[in-house]
Design a protein that fits this description.
Distance between the termini of chain B: 30 Å
Shape of chain A: elongated
Low-confidence stretches of chain B: 1-5, 263-269
Number of strands of chain A: 4
Radius of gyration of chain A: 36 Å
Order of helices and strands of chain B: EEEHEEHEHHHEHEHEEHHH
Largest sheet of chain A: 4 strands, mixed
Low-confidence stretches of chain A: none
Helix content of chain B: 25-40%
Order of helices and strands of chain A: EEHEHEHHHHHHHHHH
CATH architecture of chain B: 3-Layer(aba) Sandwich
Largest sheet of chain B: 6 strands, mixed
Mean pLDDT of chain B: 84
Largest interface: A-B, 31 and 35 residues
CATH class of chain B: Alpha Beta
Number of domains of chain B: 1
Number of domains of chain A: 2
Structural class of chain A: alpha/beta
Strand order of the largest sheet of chain A: 1-2-3-4
Number of strands of chain B: 10
Number of helices of chain A: 12
CATH superfamily of chain B: P-loop containing nucleotide triphosphate hydrolases
Mean pLDDT of chain A: 89
Strand order of the largest sheet of chain B: 6-7-8-3-9-10
Strand content of chain A: 5-15%
Radius of gyration of chain B: 19 Å
Oligomer: heterodimer
Number of helices of chain B: 10
Distance between the termini of chain A: 87 Å
Chain lengths: 376, 269
């Protein structure tokens, strides 16, 4: 197998290109630049391409030869390809109508404009998404009111199913995480408090932080990652397969059938998860206190009862249904926004987790300020 | 069929068995595909037409039997040799399977850039030619797959399959989901590409019209093997119940009677 090669000579103002070797795509790389120069030079001249000594040729080779030929100015019919076998001739003929180049990438625009454009779009989108989520909340609440007028329409089976799926199944992981966090807080706290000879305050540290914040926050974060995304994925898949449209066409309200059971299940079950997380977190702290410090479990519990106001516990629990509500709403909303492709499903699922975590943490900050102000 | 011995086989499947777990898809399946023919593989749903294609192109390892392509057993080759063989065929998957993050032209250039060291301009020229040959307008090159219709996606998938001037092209349901006009254009495109590029085409299809319009031979898959293979008229004469039902049902008859105008055997209605 001989790589493609060619020679050019000029005779009586007539360019003559003699091609040899195999004109296959893989050999053409080194020739391309020279051939393009030749194309530029041959404008206005006559060119004869002799391929009688050519070996094999594929469409790429034929295209290049045709391209060179067409680059010259063909006012007379002197310019041509000679020496082609019947098979070569057919290939050249087949390639000829397809020489026009096409764009490879979408037209580029000014980078600065595109950047500002994206920024503006992002801001506007944030605004619209906020409005739409408020809209969706309203829609869900009015649907809830309508369903409550006729409680038989409450889908109990579905609610219980989602409680199991999003709640009970999440208990082991939430418990484990919470235990770890409680243990870590106790450990770190003890290490620093020891410097002040105030190791006993570890109990307050664990009690207040876990009951007030960490328990419920951990539960919310895990539920957003586990169930919020699952809501988006399952509703989004239904959207792609036109199941949502099928529901509507059957006279069923997708909000009532899909969104309400998930929301109710999560709102009802989240306080239970948060409760468990808080208790297990405190136990985690207690275990570390007993194992690594001289704080016996009995002393730990006693001091907990003495010094931690019940309000800390309630603050944690009160937040749970609110977190659950926004997680469920955002998960379902993003599911409903899925369009057409699997790609969109993936994007929406990511968005659902990111947005619900964002909103949960913002909400938590508001709650913190609120409870601080009312001294609870 | 008297001159059968003169045909050069490019794909030889012998005693093929494929299975998923305990579920046997093919058992003792034989099939020979000859150079420069269009072979259509038909069969009911679940008879493993696509699985057969995947077994041939190295995506589904057979549990028994051999698959030889260009006379070589793909599964016994080193990865480097496998790439050399893969370069010699092109595959069009059912939905086009274009890479969604690339434009159509970039999709077609992907195998060229991957396998051949060519200057960008030349690769783009080759891509433009393949896109045009597949019957797409030039402005389709800069578009993303999501901006194209299903039919155009299939054409772009074909352009990508043709990018490296393959010797064999595998088409999985090329006309499924196309409107009749688009499907007919696609049929003609495949025949003309076969003639001008000397392609061998391995086509999995359900479409009777495509079968009539394009295929030199038809292989019928049933009972885990090829129960009949040959020119369409020969296969039709088989008395296997599935074949009878397939070709003599109302749809089969309609497609055949359309063919009868071109001098094919007339159908009694």
């Amino acid at each position: 197998m001989q790589p493609a090669a060619y020679t050019v000579d000029v005779k009586d103002g007539l360019l003559r290109l003699v091609a040899t070797g195999d004109w296959l795509a893989r050999h053409l790389g080194p020739l391309d630049a020279d051939l393009r120069n030749l194309e530029d030079d041959s404008v206005g001249r006559e060119l004869i391409i002799d391929i009688s000594n050519i070996g094999r040729i594929d469409t790429a080779g034929a295209m290049v030869l045709e391209r060179v030929l067409q680059s010259c100015d063909r006012r007379t019919d002197l310019s041509k390809i000679v020496g082609a076998t019947a098979a070569h001739q057919k290939l050249l003929q087949d390639v000829r109508p397809h020489l026009a180049p096409c764009e490879v990438e979408p037209a580029h625009r000014n980078a600065f404009l595109m950047m500002t454009n994206r920024l503006g779009k992002g801001v506007l989108e944030g605004y619209y998404v906020a409005i739409e989520i408020l809209n969706f909340i309203g829609l869900t609440l009015t649907t809830l009111l309508r369903v409550l007028q006729d409680p038989k329409r409450l889908r109990v089976t579905s609610i219980v199913y989602h409680m199991e799926e999003a709640g009970i199944d999440a208990m082991p992981i939430v418990g484990l995480m919470s235990f770890m966090i409680g243990a870590v807080v106790a450990f770190m706290g003890a290490k620093i408090l020891r410097l002040f000879n105030a190791e006993v305050f570890t109990v307050e540290l664990v009690g207040i932080s876990v009951l007030r914040e960490f328990g419920v926050l951990l539960a919310a974060i895990l539920v957003a990652g586990r169930s919020g995304s699952a809501f988006t994925a399952s509703i989004g898949t239904m959207k792609i397969r036109e199941e949502i449209d099928a529901l509507r066409a059957l006279g069923l309200d997708p909000i009532e059938v899909l969104v309400l059971p998930r929301t109710i299940a999560l709102v009802v079950f989240m306080p239970i998860l948060a409760f468990m997380a808080a208790i297990v977190g405190v136990i985690g702290g207690g275990v570390v206190a007993a194992a690594a410090m001289e704080i016996s479990p009995a002393f730990f519990v006693g001091r907990l009862q003495e010094t931690i106001a019940m309000s800390n516990f309630w603050v944690g629990l009160i937040k749970a249904p609110f977190f659950a509500f926004v997680i469920a709403i955002i998960g379902c909303y993003q599911g409903m926004e899925v369009e057409g492709s699997a790609e969109s499903l993936g994007q929406r699922t990511t968005l659902s987790v990111v947005q619900s975590l964002f909103v949960v943490i913002i909400l938590d900050a508001f709650f913190a300020m609120f409870f601080l102000e009312i001294d609870f | 069929m008297a001159i059968e011995g003169t045909f050069e086989p490019v794909i030889e499947v012998e005693g093929l068995r494929t299975q998923f777990g305990d579920n046997i898809i093919h058992d003792n399946l034989d099939l020979v595909v000859r150079r420069n023919e269009i072979i259509g593989v038909v069969g009911g749903s679940g008879t493993g037409k696509s699985v057969l294609m995947r077994a041939i192109i190295g995506l589904k390892r057979p549990s028994a039997g051999t698959v030889r392509i260009f006379g070589e057993n793909f599964y016994e080759k080193t990865p480097r040799e496998q790439i050399e063989i893969e370069r010699r065929w092109g595959v069009m998957f059912q939905g086009g399977a274009l890479f969604s993050s690339l434009t159509v032209a970039q999709n077609v250039m992907a195998p060229i850039n991957e396998h051949l060291k060519l200057p960008r301009g030349l690769a783009a020229d080759i891509a433009a030619m393949k896109i045009s040959m597949s019957g797409l307008p030039p402005d389709a090159g800069a578009k993303f797959p999501s901006e194209l219709s299903g039919g155009m996606n299939k054409r772009a998938g074909l352009a990508r399959a043709l990018a490296l001037d393959p010797e064999i092209v595998f088409l999985d349901e090329p006309t499924a989901g196309l409107d009749p006009i688009g499907a007919e254009k696609f049929d003609r495109l495949i025949v003309s590409l076969k003639e001008s590029l000397g392609l061998t085409v391995f086509m999995v299809t359900h479409d009777l019209d495509t079968l009539h319009a394009t295929c030199d031979r038809v292989a019928v898959l049933a009972e885990k093997r090829v129960i009949a293979i040959g020119a369409l008229d020969e296969v039709r004469r088989s008395d296997h119940p599935w074949i009878q039902e397939y070709f003599s049902g109302p749809r089969g008859r309609a497609a055949l009677s359309a063919k009868a105008i071109d001098g094919g055997p007339a159908e009694k209605d």
